[in-house]
Amino acid sequence: MSRKSLETIGYYHILEKLKECAATENAGNRIMEMVPILSETELRKQQRDTTQARAMIELAGTPPIPAMEHVEEYLQKAVRGDMLLPEQLEETGMFLSAVRRLKSYLLRGEEGRISLAYYNQNLAFPEELQEEIERCIRGGRVDDYASAYLKDIKKQIQILEEKVSERAERALKTNRQYLNDSFVVTRNGRFCIPVKKECRSMVPGSVVEQSSTGATLFIEPEAVANLREELEIYKIEEDAEERRILYTLTNMTAEREAELMEDIRVIQKLDFMFAKGKLSLEMDAVEPKINLEQYMELKGARHPMLEKESCVPLDFQIGRGIRGVIITGPNTGGKTVAIKTVALMSAMACSGLHVPCREADICMQNQILCDIGDGQNISDNLSTFSAHIKNVLDILKRVRPDSLVIMDELGSGTDPQEGMGIAISILEELRRSGALFLVTTHYPEVKEYADRYGDVQNARMEFDRDSLKPLYRLKVGEAGESCALYIAKRLGFPDKMLAAAAREAYGERSEALIQNMHLHGGSSRLEKLHAPRIEKAAVVRDSMDAVRKFTRGDSVTILPDEKIGIVVKPADKNGNVLVQLRNEKMLISHKRLRLKVAAAELYPEDYDFSIIFDTVEVRKARHKMGKHHMEGLEIEVEE
After folding, report:
1. Cβ atoms of residues 204 and 221 within 8 Å
2. Which residues lie across from 286 on neighbouring strands?
3. What is the CA radius of gyration of the chain?
């Protein structure tokens, strides 16, 4: 059975819930190793066990299963000849008490003629051992009354300890003048009095210890020392007697090894069965009928990981002439949950578990094969479609007539036309395999595929077009629609656009849908809403542009006098233009000037403006300087 498929349908989540119902580690480990059973005899037995365990719980309540965390370890230790400690024997005694309670619990089931309860006869209860441990061990230690000899020793020790304390107090009073403190102290288990160092010779006894400063000596008085030696002898006898008692109990435990090991085995087995019964009760589940005819019928099935109150029950059947079911319907309509529920019910039933249904008749499957989820794996460098195809190929190689195959969004993740073709080819291969299969799809052509063959059937997830909410109900025998057009209409999509969409999607078949949706004469335009506008940056004009329009040689009119002048030099940074008026040059603001005739229209391109603007003297000077150097001659240039 494919572990990946079981993980996909949530099988191991169910095992985790089942493990929480177990008390012993062994049962918990066995639960996590569960897989669907291939033996019909074993499966029917496991289903009976679950049913009887639930019946016992309903009759007598929760079974008193002990945890038994270390009992087997202690038993092995006893068999080796190692002495069990008081707390270990006490835990063993608690286990035996639990066995007695469990036998009483099962006895009630025997009276109700529940077969599982007869495991009571396989449980041995060594009453003598349990009573002896209970009598001899109390509070994690050997009880004072475990034997008459131990009782006497304990009494003598108590008497001697009182005498030691009394003599120590007497020595304290007698030697008060030699002491640093007025109380008896214990050092290394011996009663001592604190004597000043310089008074050591005045107090008879043995120095047991001295203070960190050396100023005080802790001396055990002679009268106390004599009694202490006698007390130590009794304590050695006490320890020997306690060890004798512990070895006796350990040997008694080792002698019952076979019975106790059988008790452990039976309790672990019962714990496993009762865990299944507890889960059945918790899920309000029923025992499914088991068949080998490749037929499955579920009534009121609920996915066990969904809340019972909010989960819509699923009615479903397949087999008896129908090998495949193609489920269609809107997204979030529950298609994936539906096929997972069917697969999970099958896996649970074939594992000996009850299923959360009103009724169930489920066939045994040699394997459950799934392709659900995108399966994309970055490390394998696979796209969603590639992962799908890789998984589908693996399924097609493994599928047999006794298999159950579920596939979600068949053919998705690629070009719609090619994806549709691939989906139909996969369906054809599944149909020929003889396996039961459930697939979900949106392709209309895949829906039409079911109409070609009698052993393939359409089904759809119902959808409330008024509330736009999925109903999570599966209706077998009808192909579903994606409901996208209905959802779009409800949300305000214009009728004209919807009609165009319908024609693109359904071609010649679209007119019936357009009529059914009343798409004629309705809203045809989208109502435009206010939208923010982009603010363009303003064009920043150079403030000197207007100033720079006058060039050398331009004929200008000077306002407001309407005098005519010629531009000698364009405007400076302050906007003042040098203008020649007859024999006079003046700086005039560009704002008072108006272009009369541009220089380009008055003069040739290489015209020498010095003829206009220079004096006769300046022109002569330029002529002389052009021929050779003139010492002391200067030309003053207009700036």
Report:
1. yes
2. 355
3. 53
Cβ proximity of 473 and 327 under 8 Å: no
397 shares a domain with 441: yes
What are the CA-CA distances from residue 180 to residues 164, 165, 167, 566 (Å)? 21, 19, 19, 128
CB atoms under 10 Å from CB of 510, counted, come to: 18
pLDDT at 486 over 80: no
- Each residue's pLDDT tens digit, 189-221: 788 888 888 888 888 888 888 888 888 888 788
CB 565 within 8 A of CB 558: yes
CATH, residue 267 = 1.10.1420
CATH of the domain at 600: 2.30.30.30
Cα dihedral across residues 289, 293, 296, 299: positive or negative: negative
Residue range 583-605, pLDDT digits in tens = 788 888 888 888 888 888 888 87
- Number of domains composing the chain: 4
Asked whether residue 159 falls in the same domain as residue 74, the answer is no
Which residues have C-beta within 8 Å of that of residue 10, sequence separation ≥ 6?
303, 305, 340, 344
Same domain, 312 and 215: no
Residues ≥6 apart with Cβ < 8 Å to 602: 553, 555
pTM here is 0.71
Q: Are residues 217 and 277 in the same domain?
A: no
99 and 221 fall within a common domain = no
Domain with 304, as residue range(s), is: 289-482
The answer to whether residues 415 and 457 belong to one domain is yes
Structure tokens at 488: 């779009």
Taking only the tens place, the pLDDT of each residue in 510-546 is 777 777 777 776 666 667 677 788 888 866 555 555 5
294 and 278: one domain?
no
Is residue 317 a contact partner of residue 296, using CB atoms and an 8 Å limit? Answer: yes
Question: Does some domain include residue 248?
Answer: no
> What burial letters (b/e) apply to 535-564, b meaning 16+ CB within 10 Å?
eeeeeeeeeeeebeebebbbebbbeeeeee
Residue burial 224-253, b: 16+ Cβ < 10 Å; e: rest: bbebbeebeebeebbeebbeebbeebbebb
Write out the two tokens for 340: 């997972």
Length, in residues, of the chain:
639
